[in-house]
Amino acid sequence: TDAVRLESLYKTYDGGVTALDGVTAGFAAGTFTAVMGPSGSGKSTLLQCAAGLDRPTAGRVFLDGTELTATGDTAMTKFRRLRAGFIFQDYNLLPSLTVEQNVVLPLRLAGRRADRAGSRAVLEQLGLGDRMRDLPERLSGGQRQRVAVARALVTAPAVVFADEPTGALDLRSAGEVLTLLREVVHTHGRTVVMVTHDPVAAAYADSVLFLADGRLAGEMRAPTADAVAE
Ligand code: ADP
Ligand code: ADP
């Protein structure tokens, strides 16, 4: 089954730019997909529409079995907060909150009890168990992005959406974060959809979807990260 399904998606912005020009694609549950394409090809727009952060002009979006495009704004926000996780290039951590407070924020936004034991367990798994009370400014970029991964997982979402998650990281930190995303998929059974322009990052994914001028321009299975390292 598809964790995310896009049917004939069109998106035209105010001002007349067509960012998506009829995209149909499925993202199977338990897979890691990279979305690639030149700057301006519609990658971020596709991610935003798939994740319920924006609405397409036409077409249908199904997320974890629910049609977002048939759902009102309030219900869509509620559903997204419970069923989707987000990772951004610039980490998007709140600077005045500790690492632990940042991680449990999605639970609080979703109206759920902050699960301190659960967030501690996730942070320990990510090698950040001793940084829980630190502010993000005390962490390296790679550590901050690992906190963002922990935050994206804390509601146990069906799908994690990542927009250029390694764009601000050095090679080593990027590799750590990508390995983590592979584990999110292959150990924990989540679905990850990642926008990237970096072929090395895309090689960590199971398959790559190419966009050009708002259209699907191709799809391929990526070589494995092991093959790239050889
Ligand atoms: P990519 O992520 O591949 O760089 P985007 O989805 O960001 O592509 O953008 C696709 C097209 O839509 C570009 O021409 C971009 O300028 C335009 N665009 C993106 N966001 C907006 C917006 N909020 N308002 C108007 N045009 C936009
Ligand atoms: P909203 O505030 O629009 O209702 P949520 O709080 O449900 O969005 O968003 C889920 C997560 O994604 C939060 O961690 C939030 O900080 C982050 N987020 C939402 N939209 C954006 C965006 N456009 N850019 C960066 N981060 C975002």
UniProtKB/TrEMBL annotation:
PROSITE patterns: ABC_TRANSPORTER_1 (PS00211), ABC_TRANSPORTER_2 (PS50893). It comes from the Bacteria. Keywords: ATP-binding, Nucleotide-binding, Transport. Residues 4-230 form the ABC transporter domain. GO terms for cellular component: membrane protein complex; plasma membrane. Coiled coil: none annotated. The keyword ATP-binding applies. One of its GO terms (molecular function) is ATP hydrolysis activity. This is ABC transporter ATP-binding protein. Pfam families: ABC_tran (PF00005).
